[in-house]
Write a sequence for this structure.
C-alpha cells in the first residue's frame, strides 16, 4: 500500500486545494488503498522529509523502493500502473498525457499567479493593475479551453488523468466568478467534482482538517 504525505492542518480552510488532493483522487479512481502521513510545515523542511522531497514540499508518494515527488508525476505513475485513468490505445494515451501537462504547465500558471496575487501582493500599490493582467491571461486560457471542450464531457474521450488534473487546476478559480463566464467549463468542473472518487478523496482530506476519521 502506498503512503502519501499531506498537511496536518488545512492551509485553505478545507477547500481541497492542497496538492495531495489530485493524488488521493487518482488513487481513489483506480480503487487502491493508501496510507497518509501528516506533516506540519516545520516537519516538511526537516532533513528526513527533504530526503523524500528535494524542495521540502508535499505531496510525496512512497511505494516499496519507490519514492516520488511532484503531484503530476505521482498521478502519472498511478495512471500507468492501474487501469482507468489512461486509454489503452497508445496515441490516445499520449494525448491524455499531453492534457496532464497542459493542465499543469499551460493552464495552471496564470491561475496560480492569481492566487499568489490575492495572498501576498494584496497590499502592493500595483495590485489592481496586476490583477487585471493576470485575470486577462486566465481568461485567454479559459476561452481556448472552453472552445476545445465544446459540448464534450471530457477533454479527450473518456475521463482520464488529463481531466483529473485539469479539473484540479480549475477548482482554484472557485470563488472568483471567472469560471462562471464559461458555462461549459463550470459544468466540466462540476462533473469532475461529482465523481464518487473525487468525493471520497475530498472527504478524506477534509476529515484530517476537521479532526475526525475519514469515514466519520
Ligand atoms: N509542483 C509541486 C508543488 C508542490 C507544492 O507547492 N506543495 C505545497 C502544498 S500544496 C507545499 O508543500 N507548500 C509548502 C512549501 O512550499 O513550503 C507539486 O505539484 O507537487
Amino acid at each position: 500500500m502506498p503512503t502519501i504525505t499531506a498537511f496536518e492542518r488545512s492551509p485553505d480552510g478545507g477547500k481541497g486545494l492542497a496538492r495531495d488532493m489530485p493524488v488521493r483522487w487518482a488513487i481513489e479512481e483506480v480503487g487502491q488503498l493508501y496510507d497518509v502521513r501528516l506533516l506540519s510545515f516545520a516537519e516538511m523542511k526537516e532533513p528526513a522529509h527533504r530526503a523524500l522531497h528535494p524542495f521540502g514540499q508535499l505531496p510525496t508518494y512512497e511505494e516499496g523502493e519507490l519514492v516520488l515527488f511532484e503531484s503530476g508525476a505521482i498521478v502519472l505513475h498511478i495512471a500507468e500502473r492501474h487501469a482507468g485513468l489512461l486509454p489503452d490505445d497508445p496515441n490516445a494515451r499520449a494525448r491524455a498525457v499531453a492534457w496532464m501537462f497542459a493542465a499543469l504547465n499551460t493552464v495552471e500558471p496564470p491561475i496560480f499567479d492569481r492566487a499568489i496575487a490575492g495572498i501576498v501582493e494584496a497590499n502592493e500599490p500595483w495590485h489592481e493593475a496586476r490583477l487585471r493582467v493576470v485575470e486577462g491571461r486566465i481568461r485567454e486560457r479559459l476561452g481556448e479551453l472552453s472552445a476545445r471542450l465544446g459540448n464534450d464531457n471530457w477533454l479527450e474521450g473518456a475521463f482520464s488523468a488529463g481531466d483529473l488534473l485539469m479539473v484540479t487546476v480549475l477548482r482554484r478559480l472557485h470563488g472568483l466568478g471567472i469560471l462562471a463566464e464559461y458555462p461549459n467549463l463550470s459544468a466540466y468542473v462540476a462533473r469532475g467534482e461529482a465523481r464518487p472518487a473525487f468525493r471520497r478523496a475530498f472527504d478524506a482530506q477534509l476529515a484530517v482538517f476537521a479532526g475526525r476519521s475519514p469515514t466519520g
User: Anything to note?
Assistant: The chain has a mean pLDDT of 95. The first helix runs from residue 20 to 29. The pocket of glutathione is lined by residues 18-19, 56-58, 70-72 (CB under 6 Å). The chain has nine helices and four strands.
